[in-house]
Amino acid sequence: MNVFTLSWRYLWSRPLATVLNLLLLALGLASMAFVLIARDKVDRAFERDLAGIDLVVGAKGSPMQLILAGVFHLDVPPGNIALADVQQLQQHPQVAQLIPLSLGDNVAGFRIVGTTAAYPAHYGATLASGALWQEPMQAVLGAQVAARTGLQLGQGFVGAHGLGAGGAVHAEAAYTVTGVLKPCGCVLDRLVLTATESVWKVHDDMHATDDMDDEDRAALAADREITLALITYSTPLAAVSFPRFVNDSTAMQAAAPAVEITRLLSMVGVGTRVFQGLGVVLLGVAALSVFIALWSAVRERRTDLAMLRMLGASPQKVGALLLCEALWLAALACVLGLLAAHGLVALLGAMLMAEQSLAITGWQWVHTEVWVPVLALGVALLAAGLPALGAYRLDVTQLLNSR
Amino acid sequence: MIEALGVAFAYPGGQMLRFNDVTVEQGGTLLLRGPSGSGKSTWLALVAGLLTPSAGVLRVAGQAVAALGPSARDAWRARNVGFLPQKLHLSDALTVADNLALVYFAAGMPVDRTAIAQGLAALGVADLAGRKPAQLSGGQAQRVALARALLLRPRVVLADEPTASLDDAACATALQLLQRTAQACGATLVVATHDARVLQALPQAQVLGFQAVAGGVAP
C-alpha cells in the first residue's frame, strides 16, 4: 500500500462526491480542450486549403464571400468575370500562377469545378485510380465525393444547376468519371474536378438554341466567363501593389485570403472567447467543489489522519495523501475531459462533413492540448493546497484527548 | 522499558505539568490513573514522541525519544509504539485488512498480508478481514484495533481508556486480551484510565497517579 493506492481508496470511499467533482472538473477541462482542439483544427483546415494562394480574383462584391466561395467552397461566389480579363492578368509579371475556377453546378451537393490540371497539382493531390480529364465532360472525383456518391471509374453522372443539391438537372450533358483522387484532407476531397470547357459546354448547351448559327456561337465563345481565379505571386512585393491594381484598374475584385481569414477568425474569436470563459467558470466551480470536498474530507477524516500520524506516518505523508486524492481527480478528469473534447470535435467534423464543409478530424492529438493536464494539475493543487496543509498541521494529541 | 525521571511538560499557554517518576520493566504493565484532564493523555503523547518533555529524562525502549528529530521520531514510533485509542479509530473507508495495512503504510514498509492474516487470526477475527469496520460489533472492532496495535510487535503498547464504553464482562475480557497479547509480544503495556475496574482486573500492574490540575484540567 502506498500513497497512491491509499488515496485512491479514500477517494472512492465517497463515490457520489467523487463522481460529482469528477464531472465538474471534466466538464470544465472538456470545454477548454474543445476550444483548443477545434480552433487548431479549423486553423489547420484553413491553412491547408489556403496553401500558396496569395490572392483570389472574382466579381466585385464581398471579399470574404469571394474567399469563402473560391478557396474553401463554403459560400456562393459573387458573380462571374470575363475570361479575357483573367487572361490579361495571367500575363502580368507579378503573377506566377493563375488557376481559373468555374462554378455553377453540383452533383449530390458536391460542387463541380471547371479548372485546369494546375488546381489538383497545387494541392499536391494524387490519383487513387484512373487519370485526370483529357477532354471536356470527363471528371475526377474527390475522395469524399467518391465515397459518398458511390460513383466508379467509367460511370456517367449529370450535374444539377446551382451549388447545393436540388437544382435543375442538366440531363443532356453527362460527365464520365475518369479518375478518383486520394484523400488529401483538403478542399479537393469534396469537389468534382473537370475541364473549364465542360462547364462552358453544359451552360452553352443550356442557353444555345437550335436557330443559333456559327456566328452566334462564336460570339458566345468570345463572351466566355469563369467564376474566379486563384493567384500565386511571383514576388512577395506583389502583395502591396497587385490587389490595388486589380481593384482600381479592372472590373474585377481582388481579395487577399490571409487578410479575410484573419478577419473571419477574429469574428469567430468572440464566440471562442465566450466558450473559453465558460470553461474558466466551470473550472473555477470545479476547483471550489474539489476544495470543499477535500476540506470536508480532512474534517471528516481528521481522526483517521491523526491515527496515521499516531501510527508513525510523517506529516508530509499525511499531507501527500490529500494532494494525491486531488491528483487522482485531476488525472481522471483530464482523461475524461480530453476524450469528451475529442469526441465533440469528431462530432463537429462529422456534421461539417455532412454539409460538405471544412474537413476536421477529432481523433488527433493537438500540441496545445498539453495545457489541459497542466490546467488540471493547477486546479487540483490549488484546491488541495489548503486541505493538505490542514492535514500536515494536524494536532495528533487531539486524538488522544478525544473522548 | 519506560523510564521517566523528573519529566515535566509546559503547555503553549505557559502552564507547567510535572509528572511523578516511574520506571517500568520491559514486558511490564503500567496504569495511569487519575481524573479526566489530569494529564494522562499528555503523558501518553510524551511516551509516543508526539510531544517533547520540557524537563526531565524520558527513555522508552532504551531510546531518549526527545533526542530524535521529527522524522526519526515518527519512524521510531512506527516501529516501537502500538496504540489502542478509546474510540478505536478504524477507517470506514477501508476493509479490516487494509486498516491493518495502514501500519505498514505509516512505517514506510511493504505490506505483509500474511502477517496481517496471522495478526487477525491470533485475535480470532481472521474471518473479518474483508469487512468494513461499520459491519463489526464493538468487541470485534476492539480486537481488530488491538491487532493493528500489535502488528509490528511494538516494544510499547499505549491503551487510552480501553474500557470506557464496555460493560463489566466485556471490560474484563478486553483487559485480559490486552495484557495477554501485549505480554505475548514482550511489549510494555501502558493503560491510561480513570476506570476503577481496570485496577481490579490488573492487580499486578504498576500505577502512576495523576492529580487534577489546579485551576482546571490539563489543556
Tell me what you see in this structure:
The complex is a heterodimer of chains A (403) and B (219). Chain A is of the alpha+beta class and 403 residues long. Chain A has 14 helices and twelve strands. In chain A, the strands form two sheets. Chain A has a six-stranded mixed beta barrel. The longest helix of chain A is centred in the last third of the chain and has 44 residues, at 257-300. The radius of gyration of chain A is 31 Å and the shape is elongated. The mean pLDDT of chain A is 85. Chain B contains seven helices and ten strands. Chain B has helices spanning 40-48, 70-80, 96-107, 113-122, 138-150, 168-185, 196-201, and strands at 2-10, 16-18, 22-24, 29-33, 55-60, 63-64, 81-84, 156-160, 188-193, 206-209. In chain B, strands 1, 2, 3, 5 and 6 form a five-stranded antiparallel beta sheet that branches. In chain B, a hairpin with a 2-residue loop joins strand 5 (55-60) and strand 6 (63-64). Residues 215-219 of chain B have low confidence and may be disordered.
Proportion of strand residues of chain A: 15-25%
- For the report, how would you describe the main beta sheet of chain B? 5 strands, antiparallel
Biggest sheet details of chain A: 6 strands, mixed, barrel
Secondary-structure content class of chain A: alpha+beta
Give the averaged pLDDT of chain A, no decimals.
Answer: 85
| CATH fold-level topology of the domain at 2-90 and 155-209 in chain B | Rossmann fold
Instruction: State the end-to-end distance of chain B.
Output: 27 Å
Number of domains of chain A: 2
Return Rg of chain B in Å: 17 Å
Could you name the ranges of chain B where pLDDT drops below 50 across 5 or more consecutive residues? 215-219
The tally of strands of chain B reads: 10
Mean pLDDT of chain B: 86
Number-wise, the strands of chain A total: 12
- Fourth CATH level, the homologous superfamily of the domain at 2-90 and 155-209 in chain B: P-loop containing nucleotide triphosphate hydrolases
Assign the structural class of chain B, choosing from mainly alpha, mainly beta, alpha/beta, alpha+beta, or little secondary structure.
Answer: alpha/beta
Give the proportion of residues in helices of chain A.
55-70%
